[in-house]
Structures are given as C-alpha cells and as structure tokens.
Design goal:
Layout (H helix, E strand, L loop, with lengths): L1 H9 L4 H4 L7 H13 L4 H18 L4 H16 L14 E6 L6 H14 L4 E5 L5 H13 L3 E3 L6 H14 L4 E5 L7 H18 L6 E7 L4 H14 L3 E5 L9 H8 L4 E5 L7 E3 L2 H9 L1
Parallel strand pairs: 1-4, 1-5, 2-3, 2-4, 5-6, 6-7
Antiparallel strand pairs: 7-8
The structure holds guanosine-5'-diphosphate (GDP).
C-alpha cells in the first residue's frame, strides 16, 4: 500500500490541487475533468465519474471543495469495486493458470512473485515455460523457478502447446496444487499471437477437461489507455478471468483501472509494486482510489 501510494503520488496528476480552491463551481469540474484524463482515466470513465460526483455533491449538499474530494473517492471506489476479487485456489487439483501479456509488461516477474505468494499460502507450484520462441524467456522463468525452489517444465525450441500439455499432465500426476503456464508475449503479428494462445488454451483443456481455471493478463500500469486496448483484445481471444497490473510503484498514473472498470471489468487479482519477489499486493478498491486521489 505504501509503495502504491508513493508511486501514484509521484506522478502528480494534479487531482489534489483541484480541491484547494474555495468554491464548488464549473471551473472545479473542468479542472477535475482535465486531471482525471491526465491520470489515464479515459473519456468514458471520466464522464461517468463526473456525472456521479455531481449527483453526490447535490445529495450531500456539499459546499466545500474538500468535501468534493471525499465524494470523488467514494465514486471512484464504487466504480472500481467490481475489480476487487480474490484469486481462489483449491477447487481443482491442480488449478491451471494460464498467464498472457505483451513482452515487457512484467509477465515473467509477476509469475515469479505469484509463485512466491502461492507458496506462502501453502500451495505447491509447477511452472510451464510455454514461451518456447525466446530462449531468454525460458531462462528467465528458470531463474524464478530456482529462486522459489519449484519445478519447471521446459523444452528447448519445443511446441508451446505441447509444453503446456506436458506440464498440466505432470501437475496432475505429481499432485501439484497449481500449474502456472507462461506464454509468449510477442509473435510476428497479433493474429499469430492470439492463434498461438488460443491453441495453448485448447490443448490445456485436452490435458484436463476443466482447465484452464484461470486465464490472466499482465498489463503494464504505465501504458495508460493502451492497457485497456490490450485487455479488450486478449479478453476477446481468451476470455480472461483476471488481471495483474504491474509497475504501479513507478510512474504509472493508475487511472486506467477506472477505464477498465467502466469498459471491460475483468477482476484485478494483484498489483505489482516493485521488482522483488514480495512486491505483489492484492487489489483493494478503496485503498487504490485514495492513493490515486493523493
Ligand atoms: P515480460 O517481458 O512481460 O516477461 O516482462 P518482465 O517480467 O521481464 O519485466 C520487464 C521489466 O519490468 C523488468 O525489468 C522487471 O523487473 C520490471 N517489472 C516487472 N514488474 C514490475 C513492477 O511491478 N514494478 C517495477 N518497478 N518494475 C517491474
């Protein structure tokens, strides 16, 4: 929470300064609109928040700008609330989690952190290196496996779907609680990537008819509205069940979560707030709204 707060504050989207005036007038709403757009909230969510805020201000008969800030925090919390949902493990053994995301989003790091989080909660994890195109990706995942002392199913230059199949089969045979499947983040075209990921998804289901139980997308919190476009594209292709939003300790403005909540409310299971193993937090709508508003 502290790192999230520090990160979002550092970006200085100017929302806080909107409330330093003495009157609630159109200028305040205009400045707020600009500040929300600057914070990556996007046009639709900004409009929704402003409409909701005007209603709340009227209802509460607020007269001070400071009171408006508290009402905005409430409005933002309500908008973000559908994204607050825990990742539930234990209904299946193994729980098969497929993880997607464009290169650089923080996918491999997030898998490393998630492995630690699961281990801390008593779950045994098996990793699958299904990004067989990049040797570096496989090696990097291997480093996280060693760091967490968990097994990894990997195959040099192998077929990503075959690696996924083997990993799920091995996870079942060895009685593992969770199989985490790392997938490729870049292929020659987006069409190729989506076809590849859809194939992995289908083959996982062949290895276990109930799987995958979770399909996660890792997005970089710094990429603003582009992150929303990624959520749309991957959700259309793979039917996402959850998101991990990374790098919220850095220069990310955070407002994109409001845009996601408004347009494609896929639950945010975790947020990334650093590069180390423990820098993964569960998402809390109220805390996030408060951190965003400074
Ligand atoms: P991938 O290509 O999606 O697998 O991305 P990586 O996991 O290799 O991460 C790309 C870069 O982002 C690395 O330098 C990571 O250390 C960094 N990174 C990932 N998550 C976070 C985060 O939550 N905060 C910060 N500050 N850096 C992160």
């Amino acid at each position: 929470m502290q790192r999230l707060k520090a990160g979002l504050r550092k970006t200085g989207t100017g929302i806080t300064t909107v409330f330093t005036g003495t009157r609630i007038d159109e200028t305040l709403y205009e400045e707020l609109e600009d500040a929300l757009l600057m914070a990556d909230t996007g046009v639709k969510a900004t409009q929704h928040l402003l409409d909701d805020l005007r209603r709340r201000v009227k209802e509460a008969k607020a007269t001070e700008p400071a009171a408006v800030k508290a009402l905005l925090a409430d409005a933002l919390t309500d908008l973000l609330a559908p994204l607050e949902k825990p990742l539930v493990i234990g209904e299946h053994q193994p729980t098969v989690i497929m993880v997607a995301g464009v290169n650089g989003a923080g996918k491999t790091t997030s898998i490393g952190k998630l492995t630690r989080h699961l281990a801390d909660h008593g779950q045994s994890v098996l990793l699958a290196a299904a990004d067989t195109f990049r040797a570096a990706a496989r090696e990097q995942l291997g480093v996280w496996a060693t760091r967490n002392t968990v097994e990894i199913v990997s195959q040099e230059g192998g077929d990503p779907a075959a690696v996924s199949f083997d990993a799920v089969t091995a996870g079942k045979a060895r009685g593992r609680d969770v199989v985490l499947v790392d997938t490729a983040g870049r292929l020659p075209t987006q069409l190729h990537l989506m076809q590849e990921l859809s194939k992995i998804r289908r083959v996982i289901t062949k290895a276990d008819a109930t799987a995958p139980h979770e399909v996660l997308l890792v997005i970089d919190g710094n990429t603003g509205q582009n992150a929303l476009a990624q959520v749309r594209a991957f959700d259309d292709a793979l039917s996402l069940t959850g998101l991990i939003v990374t790098k919220l300790d850095g220069t990310a403005k955070g407002g994109v979560l409001a845009a996601i909540a408004q347009e494609r409310p896929v639950p945010v299971y975790f947020i990334g707030v650093g590069e180390q193993l423990q820098d993964l937090e569960t998402f809390n709508a109220r805390e996030f709204a408060q951190a965003l508003l400074g």
